[in-house]
Hints:
The complex is a heterodimer. Chain A is mostly helical.
Amino acid sequence: MWQYQKKLQYPVDIKQKDLRMAKYLVTQYGGANGEMAAALRYLNQRYTMPDERGKALLTDIGTEELAHIEMISTMIYQLTKDATIEELEAAGLGTNYAEHGQSLYPTDSNGVPFTVAYFAATGDPLADLYEDMAAEQKARAVYENLIDMTNDPDVIGPLLWLRQREIVHFNRFKELYEYYKNMKNI
Amino acid sequence: MNNYNYFDVFNETFLGTTAQNTNNNNNNMSTSILYGPYEGFIKGNLFRNLYQQYKNYQPAPLTPRSEQEEALLNLNQIQFAMHELNLYLDNFPNDTNMMNQFAMFRNTYNRLLSDYENKYGAITINSPTLNTVPFGWVEKAWPWDRRSM
């Protein structure tokens, strides 16, 4: 089971409304390489990991990704808070308002809704872990693209931090991959 | 800068504690492998060998504006250090040195969590502070509201 902690893993405090950036950033919420895809990918794959190490690592990283969904959601919420309909339309978010009002909704930057087709599960731990390593690298690259597109230090700080987490997770998955690769009878 | 100096306070605390609990060799090893809790937290990475800077960007320094934010930053950085060692120990469950570090962070985390909740309200639903009406869980700000960490 899970227990909520009423705080963010890393602080988010965005003072400046920026609808353009929110429109790009939403992909790390509901896009192919976003945090929702990551959380569901690992938490779904963990059942068929061959031993307790894999079950532990996928559970613990999957759980951390849930905290990252909350950080990204918080960033989008703060970037769009109190926006008028005119401002939303001017930023290309009129269609989002028509469908969802002021709500958050997990899509990519093009407005394509989240789908579980973004991740795989093969039942093969090596194949699954290789996908996980690729997913972390792709998410890192997207964070770098996003950092390149803003000058707001309140946005850059959490993006740099989340990017670094992708690097740590990639390395942990790689260690587990190498461990399983050298194991017999998995 | 202000007078909240986490890096020094926490490194002093932890290096002091480490020196008492482990031998010198372990102490040297742990301090060379790991960043201090504050530095690791702002970097998003406790492990020196895994850190990769992006272009010329430096991690954002976290500067609390109140005693509550100071207490939360202390809690968050220790929880982060504990989580980093958690992920490491998933892969290397027989690493005694890291297990000792983990236990040290966990002890500090439990103390800081209790101190924070006693002063500023519940972070977890099993907090002993949730014993009076109105129900404190719904009274305090939610994490996505601005200026809450």
